[in-house]
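From the pipeline queue, job 12 of 40. The input is one protein chain; the requested action is below.

Action: predict structure.
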Amino acid sequence: MIEYRPSFPPRYRPGVGIVGCGQIVRNAHLPAYEQYGCDVVGVYDIAPEATSGLRQRVFGSLDELLADRTVAIVDIATHPDVRVELIRRAIDAGKHVLAQKPLAPDLAAARAVVEEAEQRGVRLAVNQNARWAPPWRIATLLIDQGAIGEVYSVTHLLDRDFAFVLQFPHSDEIEHLLVYDHCVHWIDISRCWLDGKEPESVRALEYRTPGQPRETKQAWGAWIDIHYSDGSSASIRSVGGSRTSAPGCRFWIHGTTGAIRGSILLGSDFVELERAGEAVERFELEGAWYVDGFAGALGELASAIAEERQPFNSGRHNLLSLELTLAACRSAEDGGRPVSVGRHAAAALTPPRPRSAGPPESAHA
């Protein structure tokens, strides 16, 4: 039996203050926290209209939220360009932080704020909530158990229609929407499954697909390849405008003694394990990325605080995910040229081109 469901420490439910009340908070954070019995002390947004209709307490200012002694964790769900300063203010107030992804617009800022949190003795976690999407979470636990030996290949196929972006006009203003804002989840989970290996380079392309509406600004098609020094690899491909009655985001994980395959989103969820000479094992699933993944990210932070350890989704652990994502953006801007990462990088990665300001967070955080 694999215990993959989100969990919280048995006698600790820290008070949570949420900063930023966009659609992702209304549609995922708050429903998840309510379902799992989390203590949401209150919310704050710089735009008063963003909190309209919420039944939670509304703080009049960020200072008021940070001064509240019942708030132990500040859940920051704002746009990346203001996120780092908000994280710093929460750290200065002695609060633990759950920050939306991507952690920061550039790697240097992310590293600095991670070090600040560590120096102050507070926990900084990144809301890479897809790590707790049931099929991905089971796959992670199977890999940790050595079920398929050494992982050497991860493949993702986003076989879905990105027309859902049309429902959220602000999303189309995000430069590198697909790579930076959406596929950061796929990059992040891939590096988790290949953890301990040394990435060498990243290549990526973004492109408009036939049939993509003319009025859309950002590309719906993309591929991302991550190469490791030992020959391992991760590949992510977005079809863009898939026309299928059975959409989903398939994944394959190949190891030296077996393979894991499955799918997430759009009602496609499944995961199964195959090892040489054994029958394929398919796992029964309960829950889904939305909303259980959001409870998983918060639950891991709460558990880390209670157990006095760093969370699995710590800011430091997330630095490589951010570095790979920014490298993919740079490669896409340069026509798919390989960009060195890790110790192979010749210079620090710079952020993608400036993005237009939008609501507190995209609909697909």
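Job complete. Confidence is low (pLDDT under 50) at residues 354-365.
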